[in-house]
Amino acid sequence: TALSAFSSLQHRSIVLSLSVRMSSSDQSFDTWIQLLKNNREWADKTKAEKPEYFTRLAEAQSPPFLYVGCADSRLPLTSFTQTGPGQFFVQRNIANQISTTDINFLATLEYAVNVLKVQHIIVSGHYNCGGIKAAVTGVDSGIIGNWVQPIRRLYLKSKDQLEKLPEKEMLNQLSEMNVVHQIKNLMTTKCMMEKIFEGNVAPTVHGIVIDLSSGHMKELPIPFDDWKARSLLPPSFDNNQYKVGDKFLE
User: DSSP letter at 241?
Assistant: First the structure.
């Protein structure tokens, strides 16, 4: 009958749908299982080559760098810098934001500076950043919209100048401006202010953007002198006498 034929067709449709879902899940599980296998292979190989590696790694950490960067999945920090575990204490979020009300970031900063005694703080953005694009185009609502709102304000403040540039160049410029703005926020945190204004040695601060199309890190000049002139920093602040490009070797 027509009813039984329809029921049979509906049953086959449900079975096919479940089969597709299971196939998709199987692929997802395969990806996860492969990740576990990769870890075991890497750990076994590393231990065979360096028997004391994990013993030393487990003892303690003393990273020279605090890295504040974007959560983008295309930024494998240790690969980009040819380093291994233990070099970076890491804080990442969408579009590398630093907020003086973000307790997650503030706790990370305080631990890095006061406990781990990091020597350098790197604030890193990157070109072709989804968070930067979202800030320019505008996000109607939701948490992401709120999160990138500081970047949108930065964009609107310089909109007339930025929109004279081709779109790609404009977005890259805004990525650089965002890094500088986040460093300004960093310098106004209680943790950094205590170090700077009380005459203690603060970590050297660096701003970079990563060009995903080349893999290169570009160091940015930071307007510390301008901030000192506006009394945001004390006249004695010199970022440990570091100048952008002074130590760079081609």
Answer: G
- Asked, for residue 246, whether it belongs to a domain, the answer is no
Rg of the chain over all Cα atoms, to the nearest angstrom: 24
Same domain, yes or no, for 45 and 159? no
Same domain? 98 vs 164 = yes
Can you tell me the distance from the alpha carbon of 170 to that of 102, in angstroms, rounded to the nearest whole number? 28
Q: Provide the annotated binding site for Zn(2+).
A: 70, 72, 126, 129
pLDDT, mean of residues 43-69 = 95
Are 155 and 35 within one domain? no
Work out the number of other CB atoms within 10 angstroms of the CB of residue 17: 10
pTM: 0.86
Q: How far is it, in rounded angstroms, from Cα 165 to Cα 159? A: 10
For residue 211, the surrounding DSSP H or E stretch is strand 204-211
Average confidence (pLDDT) over 207-221: 95
Query: Hey, which residues are catalytic here?
Result: 70, 72, 74, 126, 129
